C-alpha cells in the first residue's frame, strides 16, 4: 500500500477524505474497489447475488477457507448458519453473565494491585479467551493454545487478503492442529454430551440434518477468532478512547444507564474490523461506478461508521449519542453470530470498571504500537496508570 497512509493506528483522517472525494475507487495496492459510504457498504454486504463471500476459493489448496461459514454463499450458508444458530443461542450467552462478572473482577484485582498495567495483556486478551473457551467447553489444560491459534488464523487471512497464497507450512500445521482438536472434542461430546456449545453443535439438528465434523469444527474456529481477537480489540479500543476522553469516562461513571449507548458508540467510533472483502459474481455497479465479474470489493466498515450522511458530527466521541444500527458486526446474511456475546462482554467489563476504577491514563512516554494485520484496528499493548475507587 505504498500510495496509501498507514491505517493501522488512525485511519480516520483518510476515511474522511475518501468519504468526501472518492467514496468508491479502485486501489492497485488492495487490487480491489474500495467502498466507504454507509449505504454502499450496506449494499455490498446485503446483495450476496452480486457480491460473493467466497473470496478465498481456490487461493490455497492447503487452507480450505471455503469450508468456513464466513466464506459461503446461499444456499449452503443458509443451511449451516441455521444449524449453528440452533446451537449458539442467546440464552446460552446470557447464562454466562454471572461468570463474566467474576472473571472481570479477578482481572481487575490483579490490575489494580499494580502501579501500571498493560490493559491488552492483563485484561483484553485473557477475558474473552476465558469466556469463549468456557462457552465451547475447552478443557483448562488446552486454553494456552487458544491465543496462538487465533493469531495464526488472523495472519493467514491477512496474507490471503493481500494475495499471498503461497504455502505457509507453520500456519498450515497450526490450522490443521486446531481443526483436529475440535473434531476430536466433537466426537467425544457425541459419545458423552455436556452442557457446552461443542456438545450442542455435535447434536444440533434442523430438518433432519446435522453438522458434519468439518462444518462444526470450522464454526468453532470462527467463534474462537471472533470471540477472542475481535473482542480483545473492542475492549482495547474502548479503553484507549476513554483515556483520550476522560470527560466521557466520568459521565459514564455518573450515569451507568448510558452503558448500552457507550458500547454502541465505542464500536462505531473505533471499529475493530476495518473492512470486509467480497468478490463480484456478476457485472453491476456500486455508488455509480461500474464493476465486473471477478473483481474484488473491500467494504470499509470503519468508514461507514463515520459517514456524515448517517451520523451528526461523526468524528466526535459521544456516549449520549442515540443507539442505532452501525456496521461494526457487518450486515445482511453474514451479520456476526457472536455480536450478542461481544456486547455482553463489553457491557460486563464497563459495568464493573465504572464501580472500581476512578481514573486512568496512558503514560506520556508510552508509544502505541498498532497490530500488524491490515484489517484490524487495535494495539499490541496499552499501558495504563489506574487509580481505583
Number of strands: 12
Major β-sheet, in short?
5 strands, mixed
What is the helix fraction of residues, given as a range?
40-55%
Strand order of the largest sheet: 1-2-10-7-3
Coarse morphology? globular
Q: Look at the structure and give the mean pLDDT.
A: 85
| Computed Rg | 21 Å
**What is the CATH class name?**
Mainly Alpha
* Uncertain stretches of 5 or more adjacent residues: none
What's the number of helices? 15
Distance between the termini: 46 Å
CATH superfamily membership, which one? Cytochrome P450
Percent strand equals 5-15%
| Known CATH architecture | Orthogonal Bundle
CATH fold category name:
Cytochrome p450
Structural class: alpha+beta
- Helices and strands, in N-to-C order? HEEHEHHHEHHHHHEEHHHEEEEHHEE
Question: How many domains?
Answer: 1
Brief digest:
With 389 residues, the chain is of the alpha+beta class.
SSE topology sketch:
Layout: H1 12-21, E1 24-27, E2 32-35, H2 38-46, E3 51-52, H3 76-87, H4 90-94, H5 97-112, E4 117-118, H6 119-124, H7 126-136, H8 144-161, H9 169-191, H10 197-203, E5 205-206, E6 209-210, H11 213-244, H12 246-254, H13 259-269, E7 275-280, E8 284-286, E9 289-291, E10 296-300, H14 301-304, H15 339-356, E11 357-361, E12 383-388
Parallel strand pairs: 2-10
Antiparallel strand pairs: 1-2, 3-7, 4-12, 5-6, 7-10, 8-9, 11-12
Helix pairs in contact: 3-10, 5-7, 5-15, 7-11, 8-9, 8-11, 9-10, 9-11, 11-15
Family: Belongs to the cytochrome P450 family.
Keywords: Heme, Iron, Metal-binding, Monooxygenase, Oxidoreductase
Protein name: Cytochrome P450
Amino acid at each position: 500500500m505504498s500510495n496509501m497512509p498507514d491505517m493501522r493506528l488512525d485511519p480516520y483522517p483518510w476515511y474522511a477524505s475518501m468519504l468526501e472525494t472518492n467514496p468508491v475507487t479502485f486501489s492497485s495496492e488492495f487490487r480491489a474497489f474500495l467502498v466507504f459510504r454507509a449505504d454502499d457498504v450496506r449494499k455490498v454486504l446485503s446483495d450476496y447475488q452480486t457480491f460473493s463471500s467466497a473470496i478465498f476459493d481456490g487461493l490455497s489448496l492447503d487452507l480450505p477457507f471455503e469450508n468456513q461459514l464466513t466464506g459461503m454463499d446461499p444456499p449452503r450458508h443458509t443451511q449451516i448458519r441455521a444449524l449453528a444458530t440452533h446451537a449458539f443461542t442467546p440464552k446460552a450467552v446470557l447464562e454466562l453473565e454471572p461468570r463474566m462478572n467474576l472473571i472481570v473482577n479477578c482481572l481487575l484485582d490483579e490490575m489494580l494491585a499494580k502501579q501500571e498495567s498493560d490493559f491488552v495483556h492483563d485484561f483484553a486478551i485473557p477475558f474473552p479467551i476465558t469466556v469463549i473457551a468456557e462457552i465451547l467447553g475447552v478443557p483448562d489444560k488446552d486454553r494456552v493454545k487458544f491465543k496462538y491459534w487465533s493469531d495464526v488464523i488472523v495472519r493467514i487471512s491477512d496474507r490471503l487478503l493481500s494475495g499471498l497464497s503461497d504455502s505457509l507450512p507453520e500456519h498450515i500445521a497450526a490450522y490443521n492442529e486446531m481443526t483436529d482438536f475440535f473434531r476430536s472434542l466433537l466426537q467425544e461430546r457425541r459419545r458423552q454430551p455436556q452442557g457446552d456449545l461443542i456438545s450442542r453443535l455435535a447434536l444440533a439438528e434442523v430438518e433432519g440434518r446435522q453438522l458434519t465434523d468439518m462444518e462444526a469444527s470450522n464454526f468453532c474456529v470462527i467463534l474462537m477468532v471472533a470471540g477472542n481477537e475481535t473482542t480483545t480489540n473492542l475492549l482495547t479500543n474502548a479503553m484507549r478512547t476513554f483515556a483520550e476522553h476522560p470527560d466521557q469516562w466520568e459521565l459514564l461513571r455518573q450515569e451507568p444507564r448510558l452503558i448500552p449507548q457507550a458500547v454502541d458508540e465505542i464500536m462505531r467510533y473505533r471499529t475493530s474490523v476495518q473492512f470486509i472483502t467480497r468478490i463480484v459474481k456478476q457485472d453491476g455497479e456500486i455508488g455509480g461506478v461500474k464493476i465486473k465479474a471477478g473483481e474484488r470489493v473491500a467494504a470499509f466498515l470503519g468508514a461507514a461508521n463515520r459517514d456524515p450522511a448517517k451520523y451528526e458530527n461523526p468524528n466526535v466521541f459521544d456516549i449520549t449519542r442515540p443507539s442505532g444500527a452501525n456496521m461494526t458486526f457487518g450486515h445482511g446474511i453474514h451479520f456476526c453470530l457472536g455480536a450478542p456475546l461481544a456486547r455482553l462482554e463489553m457491557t460486563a467489563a464497563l459495568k464493573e470498571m465504572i464501580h472500581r476504577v476512578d481514573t486512568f491514563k496512558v503514560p506520556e512516554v508510552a508509544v502505541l504500537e498498532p497490530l500488524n494485520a491490515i484489517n484490524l484496528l487495535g494495539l499490541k499493548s496499552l499501558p495504563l496508570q489506574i487509580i481505583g475507587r
